[in-house]
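#structure-requests
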Amino acid sequence: SGLEARTGKSNFDISEWVVVRLLEALQGNEAVLAMLVKTSVARKTLARAWRDGLALRRAALYRLDARRWFGAAVDACLLTAATGGGRSTRDCTVYAALEPSSVESVFGWRDGALVADVTAHARVRELAGAERTVWRSGVKHDCARVMELRRAGDRWRNGLGETVCLEPDRLYPLAKCSDLDRGRPPSRWVVVTQRRTGEDTAKLEHEAPQTWAYLLRNAARLDGRASTVYRGRPRFAMFGVGPYAFQPWKVAVSGLHKRLRFRVVGPVDGQAVLLDDTGYLLACRGRAEAERTARLLTSELAQDFFRAHVFRDAKRPITGELLGRLDLGALARALGAGGPRRSAQRRGRASPG
């Protein structure tokens, strides 16, 4: 969709298109296709083939040391896919090397989605229910040197080394992914130009004149942000803002780290903590709900579920879509615990970022 194209969700490598077209052309013929591709492309290609109903008799992924052989700092593999001449499969065997004895795992297509470990998925399949939880991404501004600041006494210092004075109600503590992963308090604050997507920013001139003047001084950098999501939006717009972002209590997790460390995030100095756009959050009604939800997500059963679905070698292994596959209600029932209220669940579409 257009929104997916704007937020990067629809990105694909041209080699993905090439391999899919070849697999389409080989349908009904007994053949084996072998291609050297990025590991992420191999998975996306197979996912698309299985989603579109292409018949594959066998699929395998052999990991390669791309730096050694090609001087490329990327996860790469030899992808083989056989068509025709037998019963089709929706599994792919992963080998740690080109040796046939180096079987590492088996991923596949289950219930309309790609799963990292088909055996583990079979054990936790009942947790992928219809009650999908909507995880929100954090705030997106694409100009950290201007929009993110650190304390400097009773003033603030930005990434350009400038010391400034801004209205306190336009500055919120910001938890970066490294903060979430390490469980440490925020060390930065973010300038908030909007409290909901699409809000008119011109009123800042009267409501927060110091902040408005600061934005104008840095207008060249803010107006030059390359992402198309800012086109046609109010000047100095940002994304990932809404009532959920300003809830005092949240459960949050880094989207960049391979370890899923769910954290209870509470207010700092009476202000809600915002996340950057590489983190994901569930807004909660209060501390008790946040702690209860975090206990569910850190349970061994929940970790088993994510192990079945997370591809650890992916550039961004954790996504809102993946987190949303876990039905928290089903998880709570399986553990015999009280789950989060529905208010922390299905509330609209995830915002860009």
